[in-house]
Design a protein that fits this description.
The protein is an alpha+beta fold and about 100 residues long. It is built from 3 helices and 4 strands; from the N terminus they run βαββαβα. This is YneQ.
Length: about 100
Amino acid sequence: MAFGIKRKELEAWKQKIDEGEIAFLTHYWLDDRFPDCNTVTKAGCQDLTKLERWGQQYGLRKEWIHHRRDGYSHFDLLGAKQREILKAEGIVEKLVN
């Protein structure tokens, strides 16, 4: 279950993706499969080759991309990997815990 995100944030994320950028969207999230995670960051890009190459630098496999028909394909970043990538990308304001 996703929550704690504003429409304006979602629209800005989509716009960056539409412009071919790697875009990040972090929001609160609860899922029984991941009891130690309370946030998820979606790292997306319309250019799937660019997204794959970006993910490779962090050890993410292309098979982990959530392919969406609406063009907003993305990696879901969780836990320690989420923190590692957000720090590396200079997005420390979204780090929780």
